[in-house]
Structure formats: structure tokens, C-alpha cells
Amino acid sequence: MIKVSLDCFPCFLRQTVTALSQLDVDDAARYQIIREVLGILRDVDVERTPAYATTFMYRTIKQRTGLDPYAVLKRKYNEFALGLYQGLRHQVFNSRDPLWSAARIAIAGNIIDFGIYESFDVEKTIARALEDVIAVDDFDFFKAELQRHDEILYLFDNAGEIVFDKLLIEVLTGMGKRVTAVVKGAPVINDSTMEDALMTGIDKHCHVMDNGSDAVGTDLNFCSQDFIKEYERHSFVISKGQGNFETLDGCRHKNIVFLFQAKCDVIASHLNLTKGSMLLKGQLKHQQER
């Protein structure tokens, strides 16, 4: 299990300041929110994941302002990714192995993360992902699991990024797989919600549901009973993004494929990798590590 480390604390505060910079609120309100976040950090449970702590930080910002800090940027990056979609789709379905290509592009899309980065180069990251070597590449595991499972639970991460996930879902449904895609129940950072799924047309390719939660990652303690039933019913999960990895790493009763980039030192250190590493990481039930 990934736990809060000392290196998380400056990142927590930076995320708070960055989120507040997106909002039209006065300085007095900003300072009050920062004081409240500092209180959360003072009492943070270091035996839990970083995602657990950031959930309460972002809840505080929303509760005190009544605003979603990243609403405008989410729409912007949905539109940006949709502008790349047709070209990438052509590239995927005309490649030697559409599943391989779509999975790599989905990993590249994970770069769109305003909780970690203030700027990024999506197209350069796609080109890097389509090179032959990534840090962890359990593609054979992925293919084997797809042969064993006709139903897949696909946990989304960020807005914009989900357009690249749509490509992978199109490949999966073309293989005859039934995909249930999962968005957040309410805004948190730039994570995908139902609004983003509808804007990007995901619903035309698979069933989409929300998890009833505004928590970072997938923490079942915060999720709706409807989602938990679906989660328990599926034996194979595709998990996108670092937050979902934090909260599901070591899950002992699911076969999971994690598609993400290790975007901070804490996660990279946990994996014994360098920051920025790309991963297609398989995890078998009853198995802590691969």
C-alpha cells in the first residue's frame, strides 16, 4: 500500500495554491482556505494513501467557494483531445496491433493531470509512448486477461485523457468485450465526470456510470452501493491514472491492469522507477506485486 510520505506535504500545499489560482476569489478567501488545508495536513493520517488526504483538500476548496477549480480547463482539454481523435483513431486501426497502439496512447493521455503538472506536451508524450520500450510492460498479461474475460470495468481518470481511453474502448468492444466505464460522481481535480463522458461521446461506445464519489482515486469507502456492486461483479479491471493506482495497488481480489505514468517522486520511488515512467502493469488477485 502506498502511504503518505514527507515529500507529499509540499505537494499537497502546492496543489491547493494551484487550484485556488484557477478561481476568481479574493485573497482573504484564499488565505482562509489555505489555513483550513493546513489544519487537514496537520492531522493527516500518514498510514493512508496520499489520495485520501487530497480528497479532503479539494472538498474544502469546493465547499468554501462553491466552485469547480478546473471546470474550464477540463472542457478545454476535452476539445483539444477531440481534435486529435480522428488522426489517432486512424493510426490505431491501421497499426499492426490496434490493442497495443491504443493501450500505449491511453497511457500517454495520462499526462493530462492538473493535480501534478501546470503544463505538458500531449503530442510529444504520445510519440514517446508509441516507442517500443516503456518502464513496465505487462502487455502479454493484458492480452491473456482479455482472453479470459468478456466483461471489463474501466476506471477513468482525467478529462481530456478519456478521449484516448475511448480509442482503447473501441478496440475492446471491437473484440467483442462488454465495457462498463466509470467516471467520478462529482468534480475533483480534473477527473472525468458524466459531463465529460457525454461531451466526448464515450456513451456511444459503452455503458457509462459514475462511482457516486468525489474522492481522488477509487476508495470504496466513499463510493456508492451501485458502483460497489458493479466493482464486485467484475473480475477484471482496467485502472487509469496514478490516483486509481494509489488506491487499488495491492487489491487482493481483482485482476487489474494499471495504465498510467509515475508522475511524482513518491509513486516512482514506490515502484523503483524514475519519475515520468510509463506503465502497463498487471496485478493478479492474491498478488501484491508483479
UniProtKB/TrEMBL annotation:
InterPro entries: ARMT-1-like_metal-bd_sf, ARMT1-like_metal-bd, PH1575-like
Domain Damage-control phosphatase ARMT1-like metal-binding: 7-278
Pfam families xrefs: ARMT1-like_dom (PF01937)
SUPFAM superfamilies: AF1104-like
Protein name: Damage-control phosphatase ARMT1-like metal-binding domain-containing protein
